[in-house]
Design brief:
Penicillin V Acylase, Chain A, Peptidase_C45_hydrolase, Peptidase C45 hydrolase domain-containing protein, 14 helices, Serine Threonine Protein Phosphatase 5, Tetratricopeptide repeat, 8-stranded antiparallel beta sheet, Ntn_hydrolases_N, globular, about 40% helix, 6-stranded antiparallel beta sheet
Length: about 425
């Protein structure tokens, strides 16, 4: 398999839950209305939206996120909202000894109706993400949560942004502009909030990929794609949740846009996304057959195809895990303790991912670390399928030579084998 930088950087070495790189997020409660609004700024398009109906254990919700199915922002059926902004906290310098074993904000989203209930959970654990999250409810309450603590709202609005401090001053104007506009006006309506988002959006290497305005009382979400604030996708959350669980491409809800299409086509994940769309339109098995055959017969003409197929396989696993775990992210991918509690299930998407990875692992791959990574993910698939003996063999192959193994594969592989050995005793 050809080695390409984007695959290694984006799919393997990014080790741990991330957030959008630069965002402007705020809540505002005045005049009897309660809103939360955000610009989601990043370098990777192809954002997803997924709907999670209620279960006996969780409230219903909608989530927005990147193709890797990490949640960037979410709102549940009771009007509880959160949105992350990336930050640069040095966790090694903080005394964080009691982390939650999974994604604590996902737990809050499923179990809490308001900020008051959420704080009961949040105050039990250390927040160990290098991010700051705004949590707001339809009652007008909001807080900021980061590894250093919890900041309650003062006044009728609260801003979450991620500009770094340089010489005691913010490195950008986005939060200042939002603060000035919210402070100097008593307005609180869609047009006013949309103006703030427009004034704080980004273009260039970092782009505002999409923006949202959430009416927390009415359960309505207004979505804008790629800083075009004249075209809106309106979500009635209650009505959409009645349609059941599903994952959608956010851009599919908007008319064609030259700016967005140009940005997307120049992205390293474009080939993977194109293959994924073909699978959706024409059927998974036939498209996988075609691209495996193309890879086999014309390798020199398709130097980017095998890495794209690997990304397709990983996307299938992420989709499958999301569907069978009530909409949650693939905790195993981020080495969270909950991720090692493997749930067994049957799913054609898992079978398709296995087929792609089996083909790729059989190629003459000069990159030993990549080969061991393939063994690891095949081991995970076999655990999900209940093939424990084969899974053990694959994990042992994946970590047999630590010097030729990605650190993330080594960590996950050792933990899985330890747990399998503990179960045998």
């Amino acid at each position: 398999m050809n080695k390409i930088i984007f695959l290694i950087v984006m799919s393997i070495l990014i080790y741990g839950p991330g957030t959008a790189k630069a965002c402007t997020i705020f809540s505002c409660s005045r005049g009897g209305e309660v809103y939360a609004a955000a610009n989601e700024d990043d370098t990777t398009p192809f954002n997803r939206i997924w709907y999670n109906p209620a279960t006996k254990a969780r409230y219903a919700s909608v989530c927005f996120g990147a193709p890797d199915m990490q949640i960037a922002s979410a709102m549940n059926e009771h009007g509880l909202f959160f949105d992350y902004a990336a930050a640069n906290y040095d966790l090694s310098k903080l005394n964080l000894t009691n982390p939650y074993k999974g994604d604590i904000m996902w737990e809050v989203l499923g179990k809490c109706k308001n900020v008051k209930e959420a704080l009961v959970i949040l105050k039990k654990y250390d927040y160990i993400s290098q991010s700051q999250v705004l949590l707001a409810d339809k009652e007008g309450n909001s807080v900021l949560i980061n590894p250093k603590g919890i900041i309650e709202k003062k006044g009728d609005f609260q801003i979450n942004s991620n500009c770094n401090m340089i010489n005691g001053k913010l490195a950008c104007r986005r939060p200042e502009i939002a603060n000035e506009m919210l402070s100097e006006s008593k307005e609180n309506n869609i047009n006013f909030l949309k103006t703030i988002l427009d004034k704080t959006h980004q273009e260039g290497e970092l782009n505002t990929l999409y923006s949202t305005i959430c009416d927390l009382k009415k359960g309505i979400i207004y979505v804008y794609l790629f800083h075009d604030y004249n075209t809106v996708y309106k979500i009635d959350l209650k009505a959409e949740l009645k349609k059941g669980y599903r994952i959608e491409n956010l851009a599919d809800h908007f008319p064609p846009s030259f700016a967005y299409e140009s940005f997307s086509k120049n992205h390293a994940l474009y080939l993977k996304e194109s293959i994924f769309q073909e699978m959706k339109d024409k059927g998974m098995e036939s498209i996988i057959d075609r691209y495996i055959e193309e890879s086999r017969t014309s390798p020199s003409k398709n130097k980017n195809l095998d890495p794209a197929l690997l990304e397709v396989a990983l996307q299938l696993i992420k989709y499958s895990w999301n569907e069978h775990n009530n909409g949650s992210m693939w905790d195993y991918w981020f080495s969270k303790p909950l991720g090692y509690e493997i749930k067994q299930y049957k799913d054609p998407k898992i079978d398709a991912a296995q087929r792609i990875l089996t083909y790729l692992s059989a190629q003459n791959n000069p990159d030993s670390k990549m080969q061991n990574f393939l063994y690891e993910i095949l081991g995970f698939i076999n655990l999900v399928q209940g093939n424990n003996n084969l899974a053990r063999d694959l994990y042992e192959k994946a970590i047999h030579n630590p010097e030729q193994t990605y650190n993330v594969t080594l960590v996950r592989g050792k933990e899985i084998l330890k747990r399998m050995n503990d179960l045998k005793q």
